[in-house]
Specification:
Chain lengths: 147, 185
């Protein structure tokens, strides 16, 4: 094989590989928190307590690197956001502090039977804690655990 | 008869400010932004913004988590959090301000009112004073606040690398859509 042909084939292969990797990265899907194995399993009180005592440490542990967090507690209220996604707030009535979980659109239809007072386990992506209205840990892309 | 009139007057005097000082809460506000260039359209939505509105004073406060912005593409979301907003270091953004034309808004009467808000907007740990126009709609027990304004990333020390500068608009259009309910103790 001629040397020039080898160079052309090598250059073309490198281009094809680079473009493929670039496209794969550009179109890579979001992490599926519904099917992921939880990295952390906590109660509502433990999760709120972690952010209340050291927000930076809790952010580094539960938020950075898109960890899957599974939280268990009692449903305080249910709502629907402007996208039609179910919002389930976990916490005790009369106690400050809650975990607000927004379900994915697919999971939202399955959540219609969830009522205040129900014990529940929800997993998803923890995005941090807001304290404007009350200390409230926010979880998005949530789903009911598969097992 | 006189006593009855005094009592009625007293009731009005006591009841009016009590009602006026009530706070209205929005727990799942929708804030989204949009950046469009010929090369790329970027859109991200945050449906978890919290806000408190005090009609009596016109005080308006917002808070949101940067990490709660959802993008269509995972890579864009990753770059937004890690390279531009540094959300691990600066996880929140907030606004503290007031409706400056409060006298033109009647919170006791249904209708859509033009509103002007002025206050301090903090993004990426940098605070700027902003003045924006929007609407306040009173609809029974619900108050709807809508606004659209431009944010220049450079004003908040957000550096856009030259490699992607052509893909991100110089000004990013931010939309606010909040529905407030009376605060129940």
């Amino acid at each position: 094989m001629k040397k020039s042909r080898i160079i052309i084939i090598t250059v073309l292969s490198v281009i094809v590989i680079a473009v493929t990797i670039g496209l794969m990265m550009y179109f890579k899907p979001h992490k599926d928190f519904a099917d992921a194995t939880p990295d952390y399993e906590l109660t509502v009180a433990e999760l709120i307590g972690a952010f209340a005592s050291d927000e930076a440490a809790a952010t580094a542990t539960y938020v950075v690197d898109d960890k899957t967090v599974l939280v268990s507690g009692i449903v305080r209220e249910t709502d629907t956001d402007s996208n039609g996604c179910a919002v389930i707030v976990l916490g005790q009535n009369g106690t400050e502090g809650s975990v607000c979980c927004t379900l994915t659109p697919d999971e939202s239809t399955a959540s219609i039977t969830i009522r205040p007072g129900d014990p529940i386990r929800i997993q998803g992506q923890c995005t941090g804690m807001q304290e404007l209205i009350e200390p409230q840990v926010i979880m998005i892309r949530c789903a009911l655990p598969r097992k | 008869m006189k006593t009855a009139i005094y009592l009625t007057l007293l009731l009005f005097i006591v009841a009016a400010p009590m009602h006026g000082q009530d706070k209205y809460l929005c727990k799942n506000g929708h804030i989204w932004f949009y950046s469009e260039t010929p090369l790329e359209t970027i859109e991200a939505h945050n449906n978890e913004a919290a806000s408190v509105l005090t009609p009596a004073t016109g005080e308006l406060v917002f808070q949101l988590l940067i990490k709660s912005f959802k993008f269509e593409r995972a890579l864009m979301e990753e770059h937004f959090n890690e390279n531009y907003m540094e959300s691990a270091k600066f996880p929140k953004s907030d606004f503290k301000g007031k409706l400056v034309n409060l006298t033109e808004i009647d919170f006791s009467k249904n209708g859509v009112y033009q509103a002007v808000v002025e206050g301090k907007l903090t993004i990426h740990n940098k605070t700027n004073t902003v003045r924006q126009k929007g609407t306040v709609e009173v609809k029974g027990n619900t108050i709807l606040v809508k606004a659209k304004f431009d944010v220049v990333p450079g004003d908040y020390d957000i550096e856009i690398p030259s490699a992607v500068r052509d893909k991100i608009a110089k000004t990013v259009a931010v939309n606010v859509d909040m529905a407030y309910q009376p605060y129940k103790k």
